[in-house]
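@channel sequence for tomorrow's demo:
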Amino acid sequence: MIYLTNCRTSQPAPEAIEAMLPYLKEKFYFPGNFIKSGTEAKQDLEKFQNVISTSINANSTEIHFTNSGTSANNIAIKGYISANATRGTHIIVSVIDYPDLLANAAFFENSGFSVTYISADRDGFINLEELKDAIQTDTIFFMTTLGNHTTGTIQPLKKIREILDSADHKIAMHVDACEAYGRIPIDVNELGIDLMSISAHKIHGPQGVGALYQRKGIKIGQVNHGVSRIDNHETGGISMASIAGFSKAVELISANFDEYSQKIRDLSNYLLEQIEAKISHTMLNGPRGEKRAPHNINISFDFIEGEAITVMLDFYDIAVATGSACASQGLKANYIMMALGRTHEQSHGSIKFTLSRYNTFEEIDITVEKLAEIVQELRRRSPLYNEEN
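structure tokens (generated this afternoon):
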């Protein structure tokens, strides 16, 4: 299979799988006190926390392991807002954010909080003037998606932090970095991030584990109630094996981050160049160059349906995602594409290619060759297309 849908999940690194095995076979116990097995597990957990914290320039005590990036988002958002509701009840989010964030915004809006939804431009950058105007005396929380899951657009967190800090009271910033982490450098202190969610399975770690960064001094309330095995925020059992695999995946990326990130960007740039050179009537969704996440290329193909392209590529064992990925379980137009001013046809005709370090230039050549054939055939059948287009 040529796998080009790393936005959904990625191939676990062999080294990450190997790092998990001892915790599935012999070291299956949870951290604890007084006995050797618990002490050993506790020391391992601290080591894993340190690996994650070092990768974002945080303190290890600011890292909380969770069962997923979605769980980290829920703990951060619900936990902070519930713990700080006495200070204010106004929240700011954008219309193009990840479904986790928008679902939480809707939850609090239905619970009596006020929410301001700010717009974005055609490339997916949120409107900073609207952000300035949206701040109120009771604004306590802003949340954003660092690397947009549909277009790859990287939000300017430094500028956003400056705007939030211009208020005469504290406005916390939560960042969903699940698509950006491990692909672009993230320094939580330089960017002024208060809370941030990340996920292992996007960066060649195992599925079923994520992490929450919680800046020291940022208070969040309890969202999950129950016994604490690994973390007091994510109660119950979290897989130590998965945490070990997560840590190893981060170590692999951190060992030579610039080279790793550049390889993915080179592959993505090559894919874009080849598509634009060999297939007419296409449009890149999102910005070009360094302002988009290096692994993400989203392209609309005029006159045809993205779902049809996806199915036909699958016949050749080439896996890609439609423009509806992470947005709808049906065939609705992608809400982000529509918010960026695309037509229904451009939304439905979009394909998202998301690459990893395991992809090759040869795979891209094969993909573009088959893609060109498929697009030509689908356009031949399409009532919207004629050769004069």
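heads up for whoever presents: The chain has 13 helices and 13 strands.
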